[in-house]
Design a protein that fits this description.
Three copies of one chain form a homotrimer.
Chain A (H helix, E strand, L loop, with lengths): L13 E6 L6 H14 L3 E4 L4 H4 L9 H12 L3 E5 L7 H6 L26 H18 L5 E5 L14 H15 L2 H8 L26 H27 L6 E2 L1 E2 L9 H5 L6 E3 L9 H15 L5 E5 L18 H11 L2 E6 L25 H15 L12 E4 L2 H7 L11 H14 L4 E4 L10 E4 L7 H12 L3 E5 L21 H4 L1 E6 L7 E6 L8 E6 L3 E5 L3 E6 L8 E8 L2 E6 L2 E2 L1 H15 L10 E7 L4 E7 L5 E4 L3 E3 L4 E3 L2 E4 L4 E6 L10
Parallel strand pairs in A: 1-2, 1-9, 2-3, 3-4, 4-5, 6-7, 7-8, 8-9, 10-11, 10-12, 12-13, 13-20
Antiparallel strand pairs in A: 14-17, 15-16, 15-18, 16-21, 18-19, 19-20, 22-23, 23-28, 24-27, 25-26, 25-28
Helix pairs in contact in A: 5-8, 10-14, 11-12, 14-17
Chain lengths: 682, 682, 682
């Protein structure tokens, strides 16, 4: 059945969250819908963990309560994103199919009493999951309040890799499909190293416990296989739904936080991209991580609006120290997602649970009830989201792309790399935050995609880079683009084999240099660079750590040189003219502050002029058919002003500008005349 | 058979320790008893790890060596606490019943070559344990030197929880007994959360490995079950002994250090309470931990004298750095136990072992022999204990009760709590140490018990607090008591479900406030409070960390306010008049120093005047029928004086007072006229 | 067949490394041999991980490629050390014999996909290993380019202990052989402690998971058993080779870095001692660790020249931060090995691997190719090694022996020792480095060997010291030797039982004191000593940490006293005249700096005058039949001069001295007239 249902109907932003009324007595449901209306809730997700309530014994179904619930929500004008409950198999499932349990690397089978899928590779689970999805879709396909299907929950968490017998059998099949012959597999994995050549398919094992470190190409493929198996689980459920319904199907991603899923591939399978996002409590600048997650979500969605399926009204419960949000912070977070393309603001969850693992997770309606600060802010946010209805469908464009390749991250973060201090995540965040602080809106991009629409491309962690993707980057520069590459990029091919010609060989042409040797620094060691850009007035020293390199320069010019450390006297940062563009190479680790002059110089090459914004005032533009919407979020404790923004401030419904005032900790959303020019129209 | 034997016979304190002569040649036994007499030893525990020597093969017994040993001890006037050896099953037991091994959470079966019980739930172990206990009791019931039975060793250590098949089967039976129906279990565990509803008893598993965190009510019940199984093991052995003997039965507790046993329940099952205590070497104030352990032991014993079964003459061997006791320290430790109610001073062990895991554990007779400092102090301590014979049977009373509820601790210290920095143990120790430094003697108390005899009740960590127990505390205050409650109290019910009405709801009336939200602090973050008590001269600032809260005040008055941090400007510490009493609430974590003004103010409400004692001079009174005994222990390097203590100093046998002098590092025990008034007579 | 083959043939030093051409296309082999000749390579090891290529299916062999390879190498004049490939069983082996996998302590079976032996105790592996060794030896026994056999790879790493069923069965057999009767085993293990007495051999288990700590004598025996099983694997392969060949057999040790092998025993089984050595990257003074490893290798070889089988041209890949060598460092490392007795300079590996776990390991020919710094230095080093041909066969002698007893280390580093801060390795390194800095060449020695040739013996970590070995040390002193003993020595016998008479009892006579009690210090605690040697001008304070002791002095004189800490006022360092010699005892932990005055005083007793060398200039003498060779390595950034060294500097081929100049970071090797006198001629 083709997807013809559209969602949402009408021009409005969604507001609501996960709703688990099965945890409460029936009378509470009535209070719930009354309070939802008070808070402006127009959308909820239901049934996410309800498998055992819908199918209390294998093959016995109970839909009565769900019928009643959906009717009640419909009567109150609340749209429903109806879930398949397959992320929480019932206890009877584990008891009936004990060998369908996920098995850890060390051989421990994971049982019931918690949540998390069974083995994605086990036929019993595949069958049971498809079946319950089909039953639900069949029953509620035409229910008027159901506007979308929510499959499963956060694929890849809390478990991803599986070492069960079922997984190993599926793995061999997957490998046959990928490689065709054992010779091809042996070649790809380099099994002649350490004498690992396979002579029979049945001899290939999962990368389980081994005496020394395991074959890294095998492990990389196991990450691909894991992603594939999870995705196959999703598409099987999706297709089971499609047999009954033409409404859109989604599943909630975890954007930057789920290492087991390759969202570029996943986004192609969903009708609408959804995301869950939670602040990292230990990070005092968690709002930057939020922006990165939102930008990634928008990017995998191809720029289309997306759904913020879950975030939190205040603290979560599963981090070491669960920091509560302070007044105004929830609204800043919610509207930052909207600014970066979300058309729904959703929470986990509507009402705080009294029991279970997440009883200390905040909710729209907290344990303390409607007298609480959180409730008051939830109601006010509902009003604000309502005032932004016209933003629905508008999009965000960016001048800068930051490369994000999940396969590279899988490869890079394995064991036995040159230095444990080099982590892809750290570099991605550092470059992203530098761009964020400079007021630039960023898309995440795959190195193999068309990059011609961007003024600048930044590659903070492209350890695995195929020759084809490197050629794509080279062409991009030749055609006039500006490329910034961080160290430990272009090292291996798709099988984690070092490129012929040495480290970074596929980038040699565009960077104008080769990397002769890595010079990791000792723990805590710092080195100093002399930064000598074209403009001598900007000369200064920069501090770096973790990494240095022994570079062999071809055509690149030196813009910073090591003053000390193992690379003393040699090039640290270079710039290479290639065709109509320029490629920068940063061969050491600079902190966010010290990245500033480097990127500023690269912006100049790219023709980018960063906007003048006060520190920690976040400004993003959503572009609609008839208007632009400038969303300005003040993360500071002082009022801020933004020049040159005139129009109507929608939250307060008042004229704004030409100097936009944003109160301390506040948000402003201004409808302005559409900008011409600027970023690409993608 | 009713327990009619009394112990000890005659008015004397016991002195001795674990005696393991089976490790030594027969000629050493003669030297042992000679040296025991030299040291004043009148009591030993024997046979604790002797199963394989008494039953070398299943069903074959060898009692000859034990006959000879008991006769030798009897001939030398040494009383024996005769053990059942079930804490060390023989190798043949493990080989014959491999499935009776304890299995860890992760599925590892624990085998022989060490010590520690087999699975408490396995019939083979239950049978074998009862059998050997019965055989020993039968043979030695009438031996005149046996004055008591010592069952097993330190139940719950080194292993508590067990995930063997036998355990899981017993667990299901225990749950049936506890809940009757699956509906009741599902309700209690809140299994509708995360779709965990059970439809068959056989589907219920132990809280083993799961993909995400396990149901916390289930885990809490597993702690109760574990405690129950261990206790059933004890009572089975006890009852097997009772069929043959009317002498009292005990087992050695580990007081504050054994998280798997609920001593309130255990103490009801023993005839005499015994305890083992070892200093925490890393704690420079380990003597305060000792006092807490001794007070807890006395409290679970209902105030009756108890047995210090084991402590050490110097270092132990199982801590990371095993700090030796310095001259005089052993005597201070031993007599501190006596001060807090011990009628026996026992050691592990008499003679240092040459082999095995504890060869580096100190002993009464160390490897270095009788020329050593330790031996000289052991002999002198024997003399001192002898001089205190008349203390036997005297008791200790306290004005202050500190709440201790093992079930609450089990619940609180699970995963996914608001902050990993909040540990019940830390707060219990902090409040206890504040009271200790203030010179107050403290009972530990269960929140559900009659508290009317105490002037003040302190609740440092009552996370799990049933509505009934909260009502008990409320009545206590209404009737004139003073209650001090620390944060994160009154949160959940007996099933780890948040109380209806929100956090701390059952305490809302007595505290005069509600807790709207937790505001955990970041790692290392500190906040400042303005302490503004009634007496403005005492106004000051206080430092706090780890935790703050968003309070909703009803009738409570603010006595300290946050100056900064997430709760800046709001109440931090409150006082509420309720009925004839007052309830204090401390919503953040204060160090021991900064707790001082808060408790001083609460003492005033309670009508408590802390005694004037020099810092680190510990004073406790034991009250006999005809006299009080003031025990004063000087933990400092300088002589101390104590005013108003006159009578006879028993250790030296000289008149003392009215200014009692206690030498640096020394102890004085003064027989004085009985005090009238003061603490409650319980 | 007797070993009659000699190696190397002719007077030359070997230069080369592991060569794994099977990872590369055939055309690369031609480039390889061409470049080997350019670099002066005259020796390679081949076939180390080639099992699956030589025996692709069980019983099917493919020697064609090896035939071709050996002929190619022979044609280019490159000697081959031909390996048995048993350190990397093929995937078919694991699939065919799954129960031959090594099992960890916690029961995890280790499978394929990596490297590392199967269970040394499993008959299938034993058979398969002997078989492939025999096949290879049979085929290539007479190949003219094969000069030596290289068995397996780094026995004991990456796995040593094995808890498989096969291991447990072999363990029981080994115990029967060692003890004869169960009574003897029970006595040796002290199983009467904790009731562990065994009544049947089949009841004895491996020291696997247990509730509390495992019997330490059992664990110590398991270390002996593990070493024995690995060694039996070696000797079985060696003997299989001997049936076909009289060429020497070796295997590559890991000297100081492999805790599972007792090299004193291993060295007796090989024809030539070989060693692998890698710098510890985190150690800024890794070159001292190199010297220790080289000295240990020479010592276990009985002073005979040895083979440096593997080291690295630059960084390795398996440490947390893999620090690259800086210019000149490789040569300093290589020639330091030569200085201490190596006749071959070998690398892992010839050409950097593109795939697999070690792709980031440096090589003679790096990824960056022949344009790289590393390649240039490899070529230059080849020239230098060639210039040192005449050093072949010369030896090194030492005045000082430092005790090294693997059994003692196994025993000491178990659980439940008095302090986790005491590690044998730390003390060995500290004393070794003190001697290194003082310019003294050191042999490692077993405490039971003839020590009469040494002026001084240092015992930094002799926890396990049998009465016989202690008597050997006592005799050594009585006969005029100088002995320096560090704390925690002489504590237990061969079964980890405390010596009768107390700690250090077997050393009481020679040290003139007893150790009454250990006084471990708290974490981070420091104490101060007053050092009062005979010469009052040298009086000073010394800082110590970790450990102190309560000593009972008999005849020893105090040379340093504790000023504070738990042993305040008592002896810290003593000196005892015994017979014609002196024994020093250092009862606390001194840093390398503070050890200086103590050892200087001991040198005086020993009649040792440390040479005058600049700090971090390493000087070692190799003595040939006609000349001495002074190797001087300048580890500093400044030029150094060495007085009194005259002759011919071989690397440059120029006259040198009488003031030898060594450039910053450089090495000089001077042929001089042979010294008379000096160290012993062993």
């Amino acid at each position: 059945m083709a997807v013809t249902g559209t969602w949402p109907t009408g021009r409005t932003l969604g507001y609501g969250g996960d709703y688990n009324p099965e945890q409460w007595p029936r009378e509470t449901w009535d209070e719930d819908v009354r309070l939802m209306r008070e808070a402006g809730v127009n959308y909820v997700s239901v049934g996410i963990f309800s498998w055992v309530l819908l199918e209390p014994r294998e093959g016995e179904y109970d839909f009565a309560w769900m019928d009643e619930l959906l009717d009640l929500l419909h009567a109150n004008g609340i749209m429903v994103d109806l879930a398949t409950p397959t992320a929480a198999p019932p206890a009877w499932f584990y008891a009936t199919y004990p060998d369908a349990r996920v098995v850890t690397h060390d051989g421990i089978a994971l049982g019931p009493g918690s949540r998390g899928a069974a083995s994605p590779s086990h036929p019993a689970y595949q069958t049971a999951a498809r079946n319950i999805a089909s039953r639900i879709a069949e029953r509620y396909a035409d229910h008027p309040t159901v506007v979308m299907w929510h499959v499963h929950n956060e694929y890849g968490a809390p478990v991803g890799e599986d070492f069960s017998d079922a997984a190993v059998a599926a793995w061999r099949e997957w490998l046959r499909g990928r490689y065709g012959t054992l010779d091809a597999l042996n070649e790809a994995w380099g099994t002649r190293f350490w004498g690992q050549v396979y002579g029979e398919w049945e001899h290939v094992t999962a990368p389980g416990p081994t005496p020394s470190t395991v074959n890294q190409a095998q492990k990389l493929d196991y990450a691909r296989f894991t992603d594939h198996q999870l995705r196959a689980l999703f598409t099987a459920e999706r297709d089971a739904i499609r047999e009954h319904s033409d409404k859109p199907v989604t599943t909630n991603f975890m954007a930057a936080e789920c290492p087991t899923t390759d969202l570029w591939a996943w986004a192609r399978e969903v009708d609408v991209v959804s995301n869950d996002h939670y602040l990292t409590a230990a990070d005092p600048r968690g709002h930057v991580g939020l922006a990165l997650a939102a930008d990634l979500t928008r990017s995998v969605a191809g720029g289309k609006p997306w759904i913020l399926m879950e975030h939190s009204s205040s603290a979560v419960n599963w981090q070491p120290r669960n920091i509560a949000k302070r007044p105004g912070e929830m609204a800043r977070n919610s509207l930052a997602h909207v600014a970066r393309g979300a058309d729904v603001v959703g929470f986990f969850q509507w009402r705080a649970s009294r029991y279970g693992a997440e009883k200390f997770h905040s909710a729209m309606l907290p344990h303390a009830g409607t007298g609480s600060r959180v409730w008051r802010e939830v109601v006010e946010l509902g009003r604000q989201v309502g005032a932004l209805a016209e933003l629905q469908g508008s999009t965000v464009s960016a001048d800068v792309a930051l490369l994000w390749d999940t396969e590279s991250f899988w490869a890079q973060d394995q064991e036995w790399r040159p230095s444990v201090d080099v982590r892809h995540k750290e570099r991605v965040r550092a470059y992203y935050e530098r761009l964020w602080r400079d007021g630039l809106t960023v898309d995440l991009a795959h190195p193999g995609q068309d990059l011609s629409g961007y003024r600048m491309v930044v590659a903070p962690a492209s350890y695995l880079l195929t020759a084809e993707d490197a050629a794509n980057l080279t062409r991009y520069v030749a055609d006039g683009g500006t490329l910034v590459v961080s160290f430990f990029s272009g090292i291996v091919d798709a099988h984690d084999a070092v490129h012929p010609g040495g480290y970074a060989a596929p980038l040699r042409e565009v960077l104008g240099l080769g990397v002769d040797e890595f010079l990791p620094l000792r723990e805590g060691e710092e080195v100093t660079l002399a930064w000598s850009p074209g403009d001598a007035a900007e000369a200064r020293t920069l501090a770096a750590d973790v990494w240095a390199e022994d570079l062999a320069l071809d055509t690149a010019e030196i813009v910073a040189r090591h003053l000390d450390g193992p690379a003393a006297g040699t090039a640290a940062i270079t710039r290479n003219a290639h065709g109509a563009g320029h490629a920068w190479y940063v061969s050491t680790r600079l902190g966010i502050e010290d990245l500033a002059p480097v990127l500023r110089a690269a912006y100049a090459d790219a023709g980018i002029t960063p906007p003048e914004v006060a520190e920690d005032v976040e400004v993003v533009v959503r572009r609609g058919a008839e208007a632009d919407y400038v969303v300005a979020i003040n993360h500071t404790d002082a009022p801020a002003t933004l020049p040159g923004v005139a129009g109507t401030e929608l939250l307060a419904g008042v004229p704004a500008g030409p100097e936009l005032k944003i109160p301390a900790g506040g948000v402003a959303v201004v409808r302005t005349a559409p900008r011409d020019g600027g970023g690409p129209d993608r």
